[in-house]
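User
New here, explain this?
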Amino acid sequence: MRPRLRHRSAAPLLALGLVLGAAGTAAAHVEVGSPTAQALAVDAEVAFSAEGESSTAGITDVKVVLPAGLTPADLTLAKAPAGWTFTPTAEGFTVAGPALAPGTAAEWTVRVLQLPDAASLVFKTLVDYSDGHTDRWIELPQGDTKPQHPAPVLALTPAAPGARALPTDGVTLFASASASASASPPASASGSPSASGSASAPTVAAGGGADGGGTTAVVLGAVAGVAVLAALVVLVLRRRKSAS
């Protein structure tokens, strides 16, 4: 059996709770919290902490499955260990980088465009270590039974009066304007996402060229339309002369 760190200092966990506010999972090995843990909250920061539970290996990456109502396009990386980057995945996202020192917690924060209208959000999480081991924090309580590997859960207070879900085009605009600095540029000028899954920022940067091409196409189309209309007028006039 690989050696594990059993001692858990209360001070770091207390500090995390004070910073994040009301929401988070108590006594979990991966914790999540937010100072604005309210349904439909806009531009909310959500912080995670994955404990380093090995005395011989460090955390190299963490994979998070997003709950219903959130997509990778809704998130940008706000804070992470030095050298770590944010990569969208089919089910959520991965934060990864140089291995942390054994026993060191991986702590990162994401900024969310808008939290879903829900009572709680479950973030199933896989923590990978430099020795190849993976801790799977994906279990949910069953009745009164507490799981051995609980998934982190963010409890949300009810939405503020009058709060509404943002339109879809607002999501696209936010994702384009605030893509992570660690994202890779698009593979081609067509704007297709790169292997990292995040190409919004380069798309915005290249927007001037794209808009210029679109304007040129519109002008050419208008000229062609005028030419066709003129040809039709000439044809009608000739037919009238022939008929007379």
User: Anything to note?
Assistant: The first helix runs from residue 10 to 20. The chain has four helices and eleven strands. The longest strand covers residues 42-50. The two ends are 104 Å apart (CA to CA).
